[in-house]
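User: quick one, sequence for these tokens?
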């Protein structure tokens, strides 16, 4: 396998779309192709996201999507690795590790900061990946959500 990982521009988003739709389907979410492209295009054009695409011989096999933010405690950038997906046929081949390391190198290249992510309690495969790549389970903070549906 010859893996190439590149930062996606709005002009190349359609190459990511089948993987993005597969990611949504994994979580039982349906969105139209047009809505997905519009959302991702806006995030990238407005510098609100970095989308990395992994390709093997021109075939899209995985992606990582990070959103930037800031950490008031460290006074540094804080990135949210929101989405990491690898096509089923390529799982276990090191694609996710290379995507994760690309995200880490990107943050370091911008002067540092940190990356946060979440994974399901039962996703031990992902947990092993993150822990092998220097991510530490947060034992200090609980995570809460407000979905705004009742307003």
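Assistant:
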């Amino acid at each position: 396998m010859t893996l190439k990982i590149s930062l996606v521009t709005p002009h190349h988003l359609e190459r990511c779309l089948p993987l993005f739709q597969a990611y949504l389907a994994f979580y039982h979410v349906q969105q139209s192709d047009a809505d997905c492209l519009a959302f991702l295009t806006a995030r990238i054009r407005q510098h609100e996201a970095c989308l990395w695409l992994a390709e093997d011989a021109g075939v899209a096999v995985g992606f990582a999507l990070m959103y930037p933010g800031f950490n008031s405690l460290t006074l540094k950038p804080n990135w949210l690795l929101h989405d990491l997906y690898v096509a089923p046929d390529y799982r276990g081949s090191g694609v996710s590790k290379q995507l994760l390391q690309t995200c880490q190198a990107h943050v370091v290249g911008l002067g540092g900061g940190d990356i946060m992510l979440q994974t399901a309690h039962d996703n031990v495969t992902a947990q092993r990946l993150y822990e092998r790549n220097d991510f530490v389970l947060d034992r200090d903070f609980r995570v809460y959500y407000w979905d705004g549906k009742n307003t």
